[in-house]
Amino acid sequence: MMDFLRHLKEEHKNDDKTLIALGEIEAELNAKKYGLVWEQHEEAVDVKMRTNIPVFTEVPEREIAAAPGESYNFLLEGDNLHSLRLLEKTHKGRIDVIYIDPPYNRGKDDFIYDDNYIGLEDAFRHSKWLSFMEERLRIAYSLLSEDGLMFVSIDDNEQAALKLLLDDIFSEDNFIIAMPRITKKSGKTTGSFSKNHDYVLIYTKQNKDIFVMEEHIDRAFQYEDEWVKERGKYKLNQTLDYDSLSYSASLDYPLTIDDETFYPGGSIEAWKERQKGNHRRADWAWRWNKKLFEFGNRNGFIVVKRNSDGGTRIYTKTYLNAKIAKDESGNYCIEYEKRKKPLSSIELVGNQYSNDNAKKDLAAFGLKDDFDYPKPVDLIKRLVKSHYNKNAIVLDFFAGSGTTAQAVLELNVEDGGRRTFILCTNNQNQICQNITYKRCYGVITKYHYKNSSRTILLERKIKITDFKNSTLLDEIDATKREHKSQYTKFDSEIKNEYLYLYGVTVYQEYTGIPANLKYYRTDFVPKDEEYLSDALIGHIAEMIQLEHGIKLDGKRYIMVLTDEEADALAAHWSEHPDVQALYVSRNVLFTTEQNALFRDVEKHIIPDYYFNFELREEGETW
To answer: Could you give the number of structural domains in the chain?
Structure first.
């Protein structure tokens, strides 16, 4: 077919109309033969950018400055496509983590395309959604750093199509997993199944070695000793003696602890017979040789347990974060390493990640009934903290109720991180002003937050007899009295037929989590603006602040656009003792005296990439 097309092209080489038609046929023949194919659609927001340049305009009355000296977070109001286009100029290759919760395209009232809800009757429902998502996801990919990580929430309506789209953008090699997430414990049943889950699709930009495994907490590690801070808790699940599969005489020796002698299996008579050669192929012995036992006993790895009948057994401690190893010289030593566990593929089916908990999160800000299908704070925290960088820039361009902002700020408190967030959302039904911003303001200024940990103090399987003459309540009261001075409060729960009593320690308590926030609104400058360069310069400050996470306050951070401004700054330099950085137009030339005056201050040239392309496109340069 291609050969025949070439023949036709040659035959009609002077007929432009025919050549154009043949070119379209050739393009179709060369189109990909496997993958996701859909009808491309163009949005009104794309059309608007043909004649207008998107810019950010700060809304100064919505600034929140509650953490002096710290970086700023940003809330960007407007269509996220315009915000993403501007973020391409300030954050290309710089975003560490992206989490998005896009419209699920249920065919009801969750997906608006060109100001209209897309219903089930729309024959191009899936194509419009894919066109909408593809443009945004390709920009998102360019924003991610080489160590970047992306999480996308989705349900069965578009999960299969989204997976193919992301495979095309990120490549199949960078797909990590599609994790099911519980949405609710119960609800209306559709057909034969109750739909109680959706998914989180996870992709990396390039590097898969970026995940932080979580500290392994095992209820079996319930005992403490004087080394608990370094070694963690320990468990006693292994005796030192055992009925070995292959008897070894070198491991069958008497050992002494506090003037008491012990033998494998507990019988001196049986030991004497084994010493005469009367042993089975598999018989009693110690698991440790003499040298290892002496080291372990010296360093607290040995416990002698006495039974109620007077018998004794020797146990070895298995610590959570320490073990006996050998050094380079072959000598025994203690090796410290926190036990870690990878994120389970079914980690997100726990009830803490459900939408029911998300409603409780919103209720704290009086927003419980103002937002459909919110995601819980615990979900975003669990995902974000799986990235190794505690100073990550976190982007959510379907910010909705602002869960990502709360998750980032809480996580920083919990692990000492200095992450910042950028949220993008439109203002449909005043969602950005009345919900997203309201929540951000609440978290930063008045949200009551506690950072605490729980320790299991009592773990009891519940039996039928507990409902009759049980001593369980007395046991709980006695445990509380015993640990009263150690914990802030006590919690209890019944799970999987077990009763758990926890001691709760509150480490930190806040009324508001201090942070800084700037609020930008998307505006537009017409491309036929008579003084286009001047109009765009009027929005340069927003771009500088966004790129550097700062506030151009004229004190610590100062913008210099003209030689006259440089002269004025130099003349009053003694009035600016706290200057951290200058942001200078490339058209400004400092004098020798000014260079000397500003030598100890960080200087940044305002880059061409903010609006240079648009100015050149319109025949202007700046």
So the answer is: 5
Cα dihedral 234→238→239→245 (10° resolution) = -160
Question: CB-based contacts of 590: which residues, under 8 Å, 6+ apart?
Answer: 566, 584, 598
Shared domain for 159 and 69, answered yes or no, is yes
5, HSE (Cβ side, Cα atoms, 13 Å): 14
Contact assessment for residue 431 and residue 367, using Cβ atoms and an 8 Å cutoff: no
* Tokens read off for 473: 């309540």
pLDDT for the residue 621: 64
The answer to the question of residue 118 being in a domain is yes
Q: Are 497 and 461 in contact (CB under 8 A)?
A: yes
| Cα distance between residue 320 and residue 231, in whole Å | 6
- 490 and 588 share one domain: no
Please compute Rg for the chain using Cα positions.
33
pLDDT at residue 364, as a whole number: 85
Same domain, 48 and 191: yes
Q: Is residue 124 part of a domain?
A: yes
* Cross-strand pairs, 325: 333
383 and 413 inside one domain: yes
Q: How many helices (H) and strands (E) does the chain have?
A: 20, 29
Per-residue model confidence (pLDDT) at position 455 = 74
Confirm whether 544 is domain-assigned: no
Predicted pLDDT of residue 507: 66
- Helix/strand/coil percentages in the chain, nearest 5: 35, 25, 35
Residue type, 596: A
Query: By C-alpha distance, which of 170, 160, 176, 180 is closest to 137?
Result: 170
Could you give the C-alpha distances from 14 to 1, 18, 23, 109, in angstroms and in order? 21, 9, 14, 53
C-beta separation of 279 from 273 below 8 A: yes
Annotate 306-324 with three-state secondary structure: ECCCCCEEEEEEEECCEEE
Q: What's the confidence (pLDDT) of residue 622? A: 46
Q: Which domain holds residue 154?
A: 44-211+344-447
Which positions of the chain have pLDDT values less than 50?
Answer: 622
Give the pLDDT confidence score for residue 483 in this predicted structure.
81
Residue from 527, 531, 554, 528 nearest 541 by CA: 554
pLDDT value for 470: 66
What residues contact residue 584 under an 8 Å CB cut-off, 6+ apart? 559, 560, 566, 590, 603, 604, 605, 606
Q: Which two tokens stand for residue 310?
A: 């007077």
